[in-house]
Amino acid sequence: RKHGREPIDYPHSRMEPILRNTHGIMIYQEQVMNLAKELAGYTLGQADLLRKAMGKKLPEVMEKERARFVEGCAHSDINEKAANEIFDHIAEFASYGFNASHSVSYAYISYWTAYLKAHYPAEFVTACLTREAASAKTERKENMGRYLAQVRHMGIEIKTPDINLSEPGFSIEPHGEQ
Fold first, then answer.
1. What is the 3-state secondary structure (H, E, C) of 26-73?
2. CB proximity list for 113: less than 8 A, separation 6 or greater
3. DSSP characters over 72-102
4. Mean pLDDT computed over 54-61
5. 3-state secondary structure of 174
6. What distance lies between CA 148 and its chain's CA centroid?
7. Quick one: residue 135, left, alpha or beta (phi over 0 = left, psi -120 to 50 = alpha)?
8. 151-169: per-residue pLDDT in tens?
9. Which band of pLDDT confidence, cut at 50, 70 and 90, is reported for residue 178?
10. Is a pLDDT exceeding 80 seen at residue 43?
11. pLDDT of 2 above 60
């Protein structure tokens, strides 16, 4: 869409100002709240209830919200078919959407995680393995196998414990030491 290979289409023209920055795709919960307010006449409080229903993924609440949304759209001269199509997009969005501030935070963390893994791979996996090993949670212990497989795939050598050299947890052996 950004590069024109896929058309940007809006079920209703009043959606365009709200979704323009994301090329016609709902990405943020705030966009859904603004759409509900603009198209269906929701108050901000009602739009927040819609957001909460989406976040909790409660089908019975979402169906009540669909009826309210379609009825509100009718008062804004949006036909029932278009209103249902818009709500279908909203319901689909509910499976992956975040609020904007969380999205920015996750992107920031993802960037630095990828950077550290790419530029400091030994340090990165050492920290991950130490964190996983220190956890008492069973699912974390199960992650150890995946991390160890990834370490081997990255070509990082893991040495067996040595009574003279080992430290608590995982550590990196300084260069030049045997």
1. CCEHHHHHHHHHHHHCCCHHHHHHHHHHHHHCCHHHHHHHHHHHHHHH
2. 124
3. HHHHTT--HHHHHHHHHHHHHHTTT-B-HHH
4. 79
5. coil
6. 26
7. beta
8. 889 888 888 888 888 777 7
9. very low
10. yes
11. yes
